[in-house]
Amino acid sequence: MGRPSHPLVRRPPRRFGALAVLGASALVAAAVAAPGPANARATDRVETPVATNSPVTGVAESLVRVRVPLPASAGPHPEACDWLSYLRFRDAGGPAASAQADRILVAQPGVLEGAGAFDSVARNTVAAAAENGRHIEFWALDRRSNCLEDHTGVQAGLAAKNVHLAVDYYYRQKEVDGRKFAGYQSNDQVKWLQNVGLEQTVRDEYDLMAHELPDQKARKQKMLCGGHSLGGILTAFFSEWDFDGNHSTTDDAGYNQCSGYFALDTRISTSLPGMDGQLPTDLVPLLKFGAAAVQAGLESGVVPRTLSAPAVINTETMNLLSIAGLAADLAPDGLSDLAAYVPSSFNTDTTYRLLFSKDYPTFLKGSPTVKDFNFTNAAALGGLLDDNSEPLAFMQASVGFWDGGKIVDKEFPAPNDLDKIGLGGLTQLLGPDKKAIPDEPNGPLYTWRNYDRVGAPDDPVYKSKDGTPFTSAAKEVTDIGELARSLAEQPLDFTEHYFPTKMVTDIALAASPGIADDAVHTNGPTANPIANLEAGDGLGGRTPQPGDVIAPGYQHIDVLTASAKQNDGKPEIISTALAAFAAK
User: Fold this and answer.
1) What are the E-state strand segments in 206-247?
2) Quick check: 298 pLDDT over 70?
């Protein structure tokens, strides 16, 4: 396939400086394995149809598991972790065999992200291509560490349409089909992740692609490689990697497995974004002593083997997002009782306090708490992830706004007038939009005004203290019902509960011997055409470059979750552009 002359196609810079993909990492302080395929001993590949309530029709989805055992050097690990998984989205009216598809998009998730996060963009892209007579597939990859997640409770709650079943499974030791939750995995229990970093991740992608499409020439013709956020960096390393160990041959080189690359609010670059290629040494102090010291720290457990913090970002809170999504999926207008029904703990209470405090006095006093407010399930989910509520830019989506009562400025953890007080640089971490929060404890039922109801005739247009509206129709792009569905109904999680620390330390130390010795094809990131698809208010859109497709009003997560039908009446821009790129 030639290199097309198309506005989506451009060559990548070697470095990309204004992204905060690893925003989660800046906050880092310090499960039993899901069952494998039922007939794992009978075959090395299992494909299971997936049924969801998506409004996007004509797209068939399946869960694919392929047995690709870890090397013995990884150490003892659950049998389920010898399987790689991905969500396969394809045109229901197209060929059933991947080898017959016109194109196959293979997507790597970002930090703390799982395959389920690609649900909407995958469906929208496949559907957009089908409208133009092209039959494409979208493969949303799960990384190896996702094998440790236990989705039993959420799936049971979904089947029974009862979110309490999920809470009871994870918090009250109640069995589901004879299975009991074994708890969240400790640092000692995930010791094998100290050996699962950059090399294993890119090799997993290669092995999966080669297994599913054995003909290298077919891969080169049909496959497009890319990802969201950190997925852009992983794609760049993949493109440079030599997979047969013979650096003089190139059929096995990563760039020869793809006909093009796509970057979803990221860049195809091997440099750590937003950090001038470097990982802060205060995150992992041993970095300054080199790769051997870091590996020794991982092996001893001194360096935590997964990225985690005491609150907000950890395995339990990632699972709570799925539970909140389940509640909003089952009963969006129902009264939320999760804050009260989920047992109190330091982790949950501190997370609620950090996310739902109006200002510093409220945070320090600890009152009112989130339990003092009446929220619908949709409003509770919106409060967790909306760009006018969630304080961290890399976790934000534009899903609408609060409704039903008095709304005021949320001045914690930072005030809304950062520019006026000389702290405008924090917008990269916190996002550019003013934060808002309900202000009537023990008062009315706060509801959620969905993205397509912002700006409607009945919209009261809530305003910040400076007199400007908190949001507008042009800034809202994701349907909160679709976000809830992606969180709850996908068999592979939206989030990644056990993100290996070794992934980011390997990227930071990639030039050190023994880390990325096979990343020798440095022309890889520039060897194929690239579609840069950036969120206008996200991370990539803040430093636009010629040829970028910019989605106005989008946040970092919106490039994955935006609705196929937008408020301006036009088709969703990211998936439309991605489908057009695939057609080229």
Assistant:
1) 223-228
2) yes
